[in-house]
Design a protein that fits this description.
heterodimer, A: mainly alpha, MetI-like fold, 12 helices, about 75% helix, B: alpha+beta, six-stranded mixed beta sheet, 8 helices, about 35% strand, elongated
């Protein structure tokens, strides 16, 4: 029995080892090596790349990544909670609403992000419509700024917030709301004192699922943020391509991962089931 | 008792769902301080009636008056009624104290704490304040639910089969505690149950409900001894039927010789004898082929399957019903 179990688990462990732990080890090793002339890495071992992160320029990029990811997470929560509540409380067609939430996943993230370029650019749908209605005469600068990046992040990761929150709301006993009303709580008080606290594990999980990928996002900021918005994801990408500074790219990745790991540990310590 | 003076007054209350009439026009008056039971089989509309009084559902027609205030149309949080749910519906994220204080939000903290402490003591929950509902036994959860509802000092407490989730032993114990608590707090209780024994033993008065209508209202003794419909007669204890005439098993006397006058008597053959401790349950077959049940004192034992006996009962113990 035990041997059989190991046999079935082996492929998954192999994939995790080959696909995750070994590359992670390589990245960690690169981050303490010296930059090669034409990309790649060379000896000797040095902490120079990691130390470069003390530069205000890079700390600024890291901080900006956190701020944008944080704003995107808060917006996802503000938009996503009512949506999840609506779907969970819908008396019929729950599956239809859920499918609509998940539908965008059926096409590539890249294509969907490009679609936002067509919506936001000067000759895009929004500006064209606003000019046509006479609301504005000159196109508004909707694209290539932080707002566009946040919009793209919220759009891209909203379903990741909605789904876990929906799952916790769906599980709630509707009698609890009756009981709250029975004890004098208005619908708002019931929402704040019963529904919201009971949905907290889903909200934490959803926030994490939005925040972590937003923190490392680079497609969104690359396409929608233009050259003005450089996030840590773009920094990493740049070092491995045009920058040809693999150790620094790897160091940036390691710094980002360490910060996320610390956050996860803090969250898990508070609520060990928040990721389930 | 006049309708105008009654504390809780249901007037021609109906509730229709698409394709289903759950409550089909019930009128009921309950006095202040009464322990009143609504007894009926599942699906008879008793829980719907409770939900209408609590305000979780609005009636299709009819009125609900409580202590001079018209309740129908008011939101549940504007009605001075509280409910003990069958599943208790305790807030799982709050402690015992948090649950009990839930309904006291508008009171100052000191008063909130004092009132909750008093109820926790009354229901013997002192020392359990910091526990979460998941850490409580069934009986403790039931007492928290009761404390949570009583602490807001409702005019009327609705109890939806509050004992049915308890194991049988505990159920009897909690049943007598419930009665004692009601006497102490003096709050009017409307108790919903499908268990005739609970209704008979707890109630000052009770009503039997069937298919969305009230069959009969009265004291437990009235309803048991003078059921006005066949349904009530059968729902409250066992009944033997001879056409339209019903005889309770405990009214039947069993003898080996024909009884003297004053009683009706039938010849029968014993087919089964079950010893119940203080009582013997006898199953007999009449000459007509119908079965008849008699309940006799254990001291009168001696009847064996196959014995020919006479079943008799005082004529005044017969109950006649229209078919």
């Amino acid at each position: 029995m035990k041997r059989l179990r190991s046999l079935f688990l082996a492929p998954a462990w192999l994939v995790i080892a080959l696909g995750f732990w070994i590359p992670m080890g390589i990245v960690a090793a690169y981050s303490v090596l010296t930059r090669g002339m034409y990309g790649g890495v060379e000896l000797p071992i040095t902490a120079e790349s990691l130390a470069r992160f003390a530069d205000p320029l890079y700390l600024g990029i890291l901080a900006k990544s956190f701020v944008l990811a944080g704003i995107a997470t808060v917006l996802c929560a503000v938009l996503g909670f009512p949506l999840a509540l609506f779907v969970a409380r819908a008396s019929s067609r729950k599956n239809l609403w859920l499918s609509l939430v998940i539908l965008p996943f059926w096409t590539s993230f890249l294509i969907r992000t490009y679609a936002w370029v067509f919506l936001l650019r000067d000759t895009g749908l929004f500006n064209t419509m606003l000019i046509a209605t006479g609301a504005i005469s000159e196109p508004m600068p909707l694209l290539y700024n932080d707002g566009a990046v946040i919009t793209g992040l919220v759009y891209g990761y909203l379903p990741f917030f909605v789904l876990p929150v929906y799952a916790t709301l769906e599980r709630q006993d509707p009698l609890l709301r009756d009981a709250a009303a029975d004890l004098g709580a208005s619908p708002w008080a019931t929402l704040l004192r019963v529904t919201l606290p009971l949905a907290a594990p889903g909200i934490r999980a959803g926030a994490l699922l939005v925040f972590v990928p937003s923190l490392g996002a680079y497609i969104t900021s690359d396409l929608l943020g233009g050259s003005k918005t450089v996030l840590i994801g773009n920094l990493v990408q740049n070092q491995f391509t045009a920058g040809r500074d693999w150790p620094f790219g790897a160091a940036a990745g390691m710094v980002l991962m360490s910060v996320v790991a610390v956050l996860l540990v803090l969250l898990l310590r508070r609520d060990p089931e928040s990721l389930l | 008792m006049s309708v105008e003076q009654s504390f809780l007054n249901l007037r021609e209350l109906t509730k229709h769902y698409p394709g289903h009439e759950a409550v089909r026009g019930i009128s009921l008056q309950i006095q202040q301080g009464e322990f009143f039971s609504l007894l009926g089989p599942s699906g008879c509309g008793k829980t719907t009636t409770l939900r209408l009084i609590a305000g979780f559902e609005e009636p299709t027609s009819g009125q609900i008056w409580l202590n001079g205030t018209r309740l129908d149309g008011l939101k549940p949080y504007d009605r001075n009624v509280s409910t003990v749910f069958q599943s208790y519906a305790l807030f799982p994220h709050l402690t015992v104290r948090g649950n009990v204080e839930f309904g006291l939000q508008r009171k100052p903290p000191a008063e909130r704490e004092r009132a909750a402490t008093e109820l926790l003591a009354l229901l013997e929950l002192a020392g359990k304040e910091a526990r979460k509902p998941a850490q409580l036994s069934g009986g403790e959860k039931q007492r928290v639910a009761l404390a949570r509802s009583l602490v807001v000092q409702p005019d009327l407490l609705l109890l939806d089969e509050p004992l049915s989730a308890l194991d049988p032993k505990l159920r009897k114990q909690v049943r007598s505690e419930l009665k004692a608590i009601q006497r102490r707090v003096g709050i009017t209780f409307l108790f919903i149950t499908h268990d005739q024994e609970e209704a008979l033993s707890l109630s000052d008065r009770m009503a039997v409900m069937n298919a969305g209508l009230l069959e009969q209202t009265g004291t437990p003794r009235d309803l048991y001894l003078h059921p006005s419909t066949r349904f009530v007669a059968e729902f409250l204890g066992a009944m033997n039927w001879l056409g339209d005439c019903g005889i309770r098993p405990e009214a039947v006397q069993v003898s080996r010789t024909p009884p003297n006058g004053g009683s009706r008597a039938l010849r029968a053959t014993i087919i089964e004898s079950a010893f119940l401790g203080n009582l013997i349950h006898l199953q007999a077959r009449l000459e007509s082929g119908d079965r008849f049940t008699a309940e006799v004192r254990a001291a009168a034992d001696g009847f064996r399957p196959g014995d020919t006996v006479f079943l008799s009962w005082p004529v005044e113990n017969e109950r006649r019903f229209q078919r």
